[in-house]
Amino acid sequence: MSRYILDARTAVPHFPGIGRYVTNLSSALIPLLAAGEELTLLDGPAAAQPVETSAPATPFDIRRQWRIPRLLRRLRADGQALYHSPYYVMPYRPGLPTLLTFYDAIPLRFPGAVPARARLFFRLAATLALRASDHVLAISEAARNDLRSCFRVPASRITVTPLAAGAHYKPQPAAEVGRVRDKYGLPERFLLYLGINKPHKNLPALIDAFARIASPPAPPLVIAGAWDDRYPQPKQRAAYHQLGDAVRFLGPVNERDLPALYSAAALFVFPSLYEGFGLPVLEAMACGTPVACSNTPSLIEVAAGAALTFDPHSVAEIRDAIVELVEDGPQRAQRAEQGLARAGLYSWQATAAATLHCYRHLLGNLREG
C-alpha cells in the first residue's frame, strides 16, 4: 500500500485559494491512482471523496508540531506513505517523505503588501517548511525562480505543476450570463477586475488609468472580489476622480457565478504588480473574455501572448491597453480566441498527473500507474 496524505486543514474560507487547490487536485488525483495506492485527506473537503482522517490539531495550533507527526506515523503503519502540505505552516518534523506546494513570495518580493512582522513570520515559516520538505511543487516558473533566488532551493528539488481553471470555467450561455447580470445589477457592457484589493494588486493605478478614459465614456469598471478595509486606497482614488457610478465595487461574488461574470465582461483587466501564477487571467481566458494584464513574469508565462500586456507601473500604458481593446473589435475577438486556446493547455488532470509522478518518485515507485 502506498498512501499519499494531503493536508487539507488549510482548505478553509480564510484560505480560499488553498481550498480550491486541494479540492481540484484531490478530485483529479483519485481517478489516476493505481491498485495499491490511496489518497488520504486530513480534514479534506467532502467534494473530493477520498479517504479522510480528522487531524488532531488545527493548522496554527502549536500542538500540530507533535500531534500531526504521530498521526502520520499511524497512517504509515500498513505500508509506505508520504505527506503533502499545501501551505508553509505545517509540522516541521513530519517523519515521512514530504512534499510542499509553494505559491509565491509576495511578502519578500512586495514587502509593502504585508506588515513587517508578517514578513518575518513568512521568511521563518517558509524556511522551516522548505528544510522539512524533500521536494517542492511550484505553481509556475516564476514561483520556481523565486524559490531559487529567495530561498536558494536547488533546481533539482523543484517541479513546476501549474494551476488550472476549473472545468466549469468556459463561455457561458446567454441565459446564464443574463441571470448573473440581473443578480448583480450589471450593465450590458463593462470592464472587469476580479481579485482582492491588497497593495500588490495595483488597483489605484487601474482607477487612475480608467479616470483618463472616462471622457469620452468607457464602459463602466466593475471591481469584484473580497474587500480588505485596511486598504481603502482604491475607493479613495475613485472618489478623488469623482467617478461615481462609472466604478462599481461589487464585493465578493459566489463561485458559481464567476464563469458568467467573466463571460459577461467586455474586457478583463488585471494590473497586478506581482503574482505567483495569476489564476484570474487564466479563468477569464477560459471563459472567452479578452484580457489586458501586467507584463510581470508569471502573467506573461500564463498568457503567453494571448493577452495584451502593459507595464503595471505606468498609468499611461494601462490606459492605452484598455482603450486599444475597447475600441478595436477585431483585436478583442482575436484575443478572446487566443485566450481560449491558451487556457485549454492547462488542466487539473495534467497537474494531478505531474503531482502523482512526484509522489511515486518520492516513495521510490517509478512505475507508471
UniProtKB/TrEMBL annotation:
Residues 17-162 form the Glycosyltransferase subfamily 4-like N-terminal domain. GO terms for biological process: lipopolysaccharide biosynthetic process. GO terms for molecular function: glycosyltransferase activity. The keyword Transport does not apply. It holds the Pfam family Glycos_transf_1. Residues 188-339 form the Glycosyl transferase family domain. The keyword Nucleotide-binding does not apply. This is Glycosyltransferase family 4 protein. The lineage of its organism: Bacteria, Bacillati, Chloroflexota, Caldilineae, Caldilineales.
